[in-house]
Amino acid sequence: MRIRSSFFSIFLLSSSSSPSSSFFSSRFSSLSAMSPGANGDFKSRVTVVGSGNWGSVAAKLIASNALKLPSFHDEVRMWVFEEVLPNGEKLTDVINKTNENVKYLPGIKLGRNVVADPDLENAVKEANMLVFVTPHQFMGGICKKLKGKVTGEVEAISLVKGMEVKKEGPCMISSLISKELGINSCVLMGANIANEIAVEKFSEATVGYRESREIADTWVQLFSTPYFMVTPVHDVEGVELCGTLKNVVAIAAGFVDGLEMGNNTKAAIMRIGLREMRALSKLLFPSVKDSTFFESCGVADVITTCLGGRNRRVAEAFAQSGGKRSFDELEAEMLQGQKLQGVSTAREVYEVLNHCGWLEMFPLFSTVHQICTGRLKPEAIVHYRDHKA
Ligand SMILES: NC(=O)c1ccc[n+]([C@@H]2O[C@H](COP(=O)([O-])OP(=O)(O)OC[C@H]3O[C@@H](n4cnc5c(N)ncnc54)[C@H](O)[C@@H]3O)[C@@H](O)[C@H]2O)c1
After folding, report:
1. Ligand 1, closest atom to CA 341?
2. Longest dimension (CA), the chain
C-alpha cells in the first residue's frame, strides 16, 4: 500500500513525539516486497541514487551482498550525475567500462554487477529498494524529478547527512523522501569515512528505522560485511540528526586544528558538540533516545569526523588562512568535486535556532556559523560563550 504525502507531516517544530509513527506502522508493511515470494521467485532490485565518494562505496558493499543473497537480483543500478571527464569521456561510460568510479573513488573496483546509469528515472524504474546517497543540497531536486515515478511497493534508505530548512522548520532528508515519493525511508549513518571502508578497513554503522524492524533487518543484511558491522536502532530521527549535526562539530574541530590549539581543546569541542547535538535532537524530536548517541552514528562519528573527515580538513585550511579564504574557494581547490556539508548544515542549523529563539542555548553551533560567514574570527571557537548572537 502506498501512502500519500498529505497524510503525514514532515517534522514540525511543535511535534512532541516521533511524527506519524503509528501511521507508519499501519501503512508500511511492504516487507513482502523485499523478500522472496511464496514461490520463491521474487527478488529485490536495488538502485543506488548517487555516485560520489560514499555513494560508490555503498554500491560496492551492496553489490557484493547482492551476489551472495538469494533474495536480491545480482544487478545493482547506480544513478550517476553525468559529468564529462577531462579526457572527454563520460563518467558513466568509464564506470561501466572499467568498473571504477575514476573521479570519486579511483582505484577501487565496484563489482561487475554495478551498472552506472545517467538517467535517473530509468535507474529507479524497476527497483523496489532505493538507496539515496548524494550531497543533501541535491536531494530536493532529485525528489522532485522522481515524484510520481516511483511506483509499487518500494522501500528507501537515506545515507545523506544533512537537512533542508523550510519555513515550518527543518525537514530531515528521510522525511523529504517519504513526503515527496510516498515511501518509507530508513537511514544509515555512522563513523564511515568512505575511503577507509573502500579498502575494507573495519568499521560500524547504524540503521535508524521508524517502525518495521524487519525492514531494518533487510537493510542491515544488504549492507553488512565482515568489515562493515551494521546495527539497527529504533530511532530514525536520532540517527539522522547525529549524522547531520556532527558535520557542524567537525567544522569546529577543523578551526581548532588550524589554530593549533591542541588535543585537549579538540576533545572539549567534541564533547560540547556532542552535548549540543543531543540537546537539539531532543528539542526537535522528544522521542530521540540518549542511547542513540552511543551508537556508531553518535559518538563514533563525531570522533572520526573530527579526526579525519573532509569538513575538518577544509575548516582547518580556513582557520590557517585567518578566515581570509572562502569555504567555496577551499572546497573547489581541496575536494575535486566532492561537496562540503558542514558549512551549509551550520547555516541551516543557525536558521532553525534563530527561528526558534534557541541561539543562546547552542553557543557552539551558532558560533561555527558566524565564523563561517566571517562575522567572527576562527579564534572565537573557544570564546563562544562571550559571543552569543
Ligand atoms: N564521503 C564520505 O566519507 C561520506 C561518509 C558518510 C556519509 N557521507 C554522506 O554521503 C552523502 C553523499 O556524499 P558522497 O561522499 O557520496 O558525495 P561526494 O561529495 O563525494 O560527491 C559529490 C556528488 O554529487 C554529485 N553532484 C554534483 N552536482 C550535482 C547535482 N547538481 N545534482 C546531483 N548530484 C550532483 C557528483 O556527481 C558526485 O556524485 C553526503 O550527504 C555525505 O555527507 C559521505
Report:
1. 43
2. 67
Which amino acid would we find at residue 322? Answer: G
Catalytic residue among 60, 103, 179, 246: 246
**How many angstroms is it from 53 CA to the middle of ligand 1?**
6
Domain residue extents for the chain: 5-234, 238-386
Q: Between the CA of residue 314 and those of 228, 252, 324, 331, what are the distances in Å? A: 27, 11, 13, 7
Residue 293 Cα to chain centre, angstroms: 16
Q: What is the DSSP letter of 7?
A: G
Residue ranges for the known binding site for NAD(+) are 50-55, 81, 138, 194, 310, 339, 341
Of 78, 4, 81, 92, the residue nearest 45 (C-alpha): 78
Q: Alpha-carbon torsion 127, 144, 23, 157, what sign? A: positive
**Beta strands in 147-297, from DSSP E residues, in sequence order:** 155-158, 163-166, 169-172, 184-189, 203-208, 228-233
Cα(50) to centroid(ligand 1), Å: 7
Atom of ligand 1 nearest to the CA of 50: 39
Q: pLDDT tens across 344-383, in order?
A: 999 999 999 999 999 999 999 999 999 999 999 999 999 8
Mean pLDDT, the chain, whole residue set: 89
Of residues 151 and 277, which shows the higher confidence score?
277
Q: State the Cα–Cα distance between residues 317 and 327, nearest whole angstrom.
A: 9
Task: For the beta carbon of residue 360, count every other beta carbon within 10 angstroms.
Answer: 11
Architecture of domain 238-386 in CATH?
Orthogonal Bundle (1.10)
Q: Is 246 a catalytic residue?
A: yes
Q: Whose CA is nearest to atom 32 of ligand 1?
A: 138
CA–CA gap between residue 349 and residue 170 (Å, rounded) = 8
Helix 263-284, helix 236-258: angle, nearest 10: 150
Amino acid symbol at 206: T
Cα–Cα distance measured from residue 236 to residue 234, given in angstroms and rounded to the nearest whole number: 6
Which band of pLDDT confidence, cut at 50, 70 and 90, is reported for residue 18?
A: very low
Encode pLDDT of 302-329 as tens digits.
Answer: 999 999 989 999 999 999 999 999 999 9
CA gap 107, 178 in Å, rounded: 35
CATH code for the structural domain at 5-234: 3.40.50.720
